[in-house]
Design brief:
464 residues; mainly alpha; Serine Threonine Protein Phosphatase 5, Tetratricopeptide repeat; DNA polymerase, domain 1; two-stranded antiparallel ribbon; 21 helices
């Protein structure tokens, strides 16, 4: 804002002023200086920070303030209430339909709550009411920091436990630090212990190359160091051939020669990435789980292959349910487009083969979804189901079984054209067996020759 300049002259200032209401400064009446009554929302901020709900409501109504708008200092009312841990004011704002996901400088109200320095049950209550109102959990600010990281950083164990089911342990900020790094940096051993028990990755390194264990050693947090398991020397590495489709054999595994890669395992990798659970891929790779087996897994099967943490199994089962709930459509499969009579489309055998492979893969997925539904209906996991729905399900299942039977017959016919082994295939065991057989033949041939020679010599000796 603009006003009269400071000067040593006794003359009156005859210029213009711009801004809010002018008040004469009685302390400098002889110089006729002026100051401005700057409008501010300091009293509203103070009412929020002190938790005076009635005073806050009176000020809002008196000034006709929209609670969704920003204050003059650029902060939002919801952000201040969450930052200072004022549950009653937050609840009032939610009742007034305030946007719980409004970002101010890339920071959401849930982030402000998790960043609150006050360690009290109010913070947990605010986090819970925000989540019930639809607050987004998996969002980050301009530094890559998520609400879960902020909760770990500020020691809000109950908030961490509240968010744990909906977050990824391996989410990184702009420095490559996962949530466990934030807990270690601020010496919150209770949160570190909880994250380790839930299966957080303690071997991943940040962008500077430091692991959580090295960070704890650097700061001298030996109590935390005792909570961290020792790093494995040679961790299991998922073969690169398991991560992407590399050959025609991977695309049509039921027709061509079998490979070490389980059937459609590459899609398991993509599904786990969408769940944010790619860190458990190695368990499925070790057991060579196919896509069909993966899509029909339950809690017992997940535990059997080595996924010991219940929180991991719960997230996987939730992800599988979401996968099967997505309605299948014919548009998801490739098809041959009909060309114009004057310009017909020509497809090579390879292109037709790839289209057939896509159809076959979709049939495998549909069959797995039907099996998933059938298993959960038998276990009662879907609640009460009327008989009509079960009848329709069985009818559809029989239709898909007959379709799969026809596809299997076609597959066997096509498989008959595939050789038993590649042209340059060498079975090392057969090679050793053949070599041993040849050695035995040579031995008997030599011994027979020696025996005949000895017999002839003895006979000649008798004749002499």
């Amino acid at each position: 804002m603009y006003g009269p300049p400071e000067t040593d002259s006794e003359d009156d200032y005859d210029g213009f002023t711009f801004g809010d209401t002018i008040i004469e400064d009685h302390r400098n009446r002889n110089r006729n200086r002026y100051v401005f009554e700057q409008k501010s929302d300091h009293d509203i901020e103070q009412a929020i920070e002190e938790g005076e709900l009635n005073k806050f409501i009176d000020l809002v109504e008196e000034r006709n303030i929209n609670v969704n708008d920003l204050l003059r200092n650029g902060s939002s009312i919801m952000a201040i209430a969450c930052r200072t841990g004022q549950f009653e004011i937050v609840r009032y704002l939610i009742e007034q339909k305030v946007n719980v996901n409004k970002q101010v400088d890339s920071v959401t109200p849930l982030m402000e709550t998790c960043a609150c320095k006050k360690r009290s049950p109010e913070v947990t209550k605010i986090a819970k009411i925000l989540l019930d109102a639809g607050a987004v959990v998996n969002v980050s600010d301009k530094y890559g920091t998520t609400p879960f990281m902020l909760a770990c950083q500020n020691g809000h164990l109950e908030v961490v436990q509240l968010l744990i089911e909906d977050v990824s342990f391996d989410a990184c900020d702009n420095q490559g630090c996962t949530p466990i790094f934030h807990a270690i940096e601020h010496n919150h051993s209770d949160i570190v212990k909880f994250l380790v028990e839930c299966g957080a990755n303690v071997t991943v390194a940040n962008k500077k190359g430091y692991t959580p264990r090295q960070v704890a050693q650097f700061h001298g947090f030996y109590d935390i160091l005792g909570l961290l398991p020792k790093e494995r020397d040679l961790p299991y590495q998922v073969p690169t051939t398991f991560l992407s489709y590399n050959s025609i054999c991977d695309m049509i595994p039921r027709i061509f020669l079998k490979t070490e890669c389980p059937e459609y395992f590459q899609d398991i990798n993509l599904i786990l990435m969408n769940m944010g659970m790619e860190n458990v891929l190695e368990y499925f790779a070790k057991e060579k789980i196919s896509l069909a087996e993966f899509l029909t897994m339950d809690d017992k099967k997940l535990e059997k292959i080595g996924i010991e943490f219940p929180i991991h199994r719960l997230k996987l089962l939730k992800g599988l349910l979401n996968f099967h709930l997505n309605q299948w459509t014919k548009r998801s499969i490739a098809r041959v487009q009909k060309g114009h009579p004057d310009n017909p489309l020509h497809f090579s055998f390879y292109e037709i083969l790839i289209l057939s492979a896509n159809h076959l893969q979709n049939l495998v997925i549909i069959n797995s979804s039907l099996k998933y539904v059938k298993n959960n209906l038998e276990c009662g996991n879907f609640g009460p189901i009327n008989s009509e729905l079960v009848k329709n399900l069985r009818s559809n299942l029989q239709k898909y079984k007959s379709t799969m039977k026809e596809i299997n017959q076609t597959t066997k016919y096509l498989q008959s054209f595939s050789p038993a082994h590649p042209p340059l295939y060498i079975d090392y065991d057969e090679y050793l067996a053949e070599k041993k057989k040849n050695n035995i033949r040579k031995f008997f041939k030599y011994t027979a020759f020696v025996a005949v020679s000895v017999a002839i010599c003895l006979k000649l000796q008798k004749c002499i």
